[in-house]
Amino acid sequence: xxxxxxxxxxxxxxxxxxxxxxxxxxxxxxxxxxxxxxxxxxxxxxxxxxxxxxxxxxxxxxxxxxxxxxxxxxxxxxxxxxxxxxxxxxxxxxxxxxxxxxxxxxxxxxxxxxxxxxxxxxxxxxxxxxxxxxxxxxxxxxxxxxxxxxxxxxxxxxxxxxxxxxxxxxxxxxxxxxxxxxxxxxxxxxxxxxxxxxxxxxxxxxxxxxxxxxxxxxxxxxxxxxxxxxxxxxxxxxxxxxxxxxxxxxxxxxxxxxxxxxxxxxxxxxxxxxxxxxxxxxxxxxxxxxxxxxxxxxxxxxxxxxxxxxxxxxxxxxxxxxxxxxxxxxxxxxxxxxxxxxxxxxxxxxxxxxxxxxxxxxxxxxxxxxxxxxxxxxxxxxxxxxxxxxxxxxxxxxxxxxxxxxxxxxxxxxxxxxxxxxxxxxxxxxxxxxxxxxxxxxxxxxxxxxxxxxxxxxxxx
Length: 461
Ligand SMILES: *Cc1c(COP(=O)(O)O)cnc(C)c1O
Prior knowledge:
The protein is α/β, with parallel strands linked by helices. It has a domain at 10-17 and 76-117 and 241-453: Rossmann fold (3-Layer(aba) Sandwich). Helices cover 42% and strands 15% of the residues. It contains 20 helices and 15 strands. It has helices at 25-31, 50-53, 59-66, 76-82, 94-100, 121-133, 147-159, 169-174, 176-184, 198-206, 214-226, 240-246, 248-260, 275-289, 307-310, 353-360, 371-385, 391-410, 428-435, 446-453, and strands at residues 10-11, 21-23, 71-73, 90-92, 105-110, 138-143, 162-168, 188-192, 231-233, 266-270, 296-302, 312-316, 327-331, 365-369, 415-420. Helix 14 (275-289) links the parallel strand 10 and strand 11. Helix 5 packs across helix 17, helix 6 crosses helix 7 and helix 10 (198-206) runs antiparallel to helix 11 (214-226). Bound molecules: pyridoxal-5'-phosphate (PLP).
């Protein structure tokens, strides 16, 4: 029988404690003397200014992209929309601790309570609002497995914007439920490559049965936005303003850890493009940068697409069509197509420039993990805590479990905090394959990465 002792498992903030500003880590990086590298134009390879980005993004987001102000106010309509699901809960994983028989205290911040089931609405709502405010009528975007597409479709419904989603062909065919959710929110969804754009038509002419890829879908959405006056482009990760919007997660978690009366020793999140990682950890990394704390911070990524642990830090294209701005980041090369692991949100060749910069300066750690071990940890977590994690989130769980087991070995009372970035209710086919023993691990494809890295853009020094 479970002990009857009244232990606190859930830390809930009142709505007034939704942060009033996002935290911009660029401010503390500047104070620490750490330089960010500017994005470059994909044609000229020269640094781009706000005007170059104007066809794609509204000016308010472009200014956030380059801002070095520490606190950036969250507009009231965005805070009001956040109230649909924020503040999100922080849990102490007592039951998982018991199963692991660890002296470690494990906490997790749960972003699966959002309408779309992940952290992604935190930026989707902000992006939709700022676009609407500047008179934009329509947003174009890409989606892989559908999580970002459903977040933006929801945000479009909230702020009254049309949303067009280019969904990677393989997911469009295999994962119809996310598409149905997007359409229910009112978005229009097309399989990518599509006949809607020049780039899509070109890919289809060469490869009529193309399965598509995130890189191709980004190129299509960028072309759509760049060629229509009423339309802008929205990206769900990687960019500085996306990292910024996600910091509501960490700012709430700081308050909730204080409620719990503990400080984390180690903070963990999975990293695909880096946004849920940045969201939870940047406010804490800010404390480190200001010399107020010394948290260990770990990014968990898949062994099949390990940009932070195995990629190079270089300027690279973000998309296959080479239309989007070039950014300096950890990359496996823009031609690299990761194996079809079940954590679709982690299948990206690059990484957020801000997260990459922190890694380059040893301000964070990174660890790559295999998918079967992640599902092992995810199922263990589900059976202990009840929540079915998204396959992406299981990467963070795996690293948190490893840290807890290490604490047990050393008899250490360690406090662990991780981000449970979303639920896995749309990913049950992946769980079925796991339960059937049909999941496989993919070794790091060193040769294919080397090939892909050979075509990094030649950027003038
Ligand atoms: C999209 C997604 C991720 C990966 O994206 P990041 O930008 O790295 O956070 C992780 N978890 C979930 C649940 C997602 O939907």
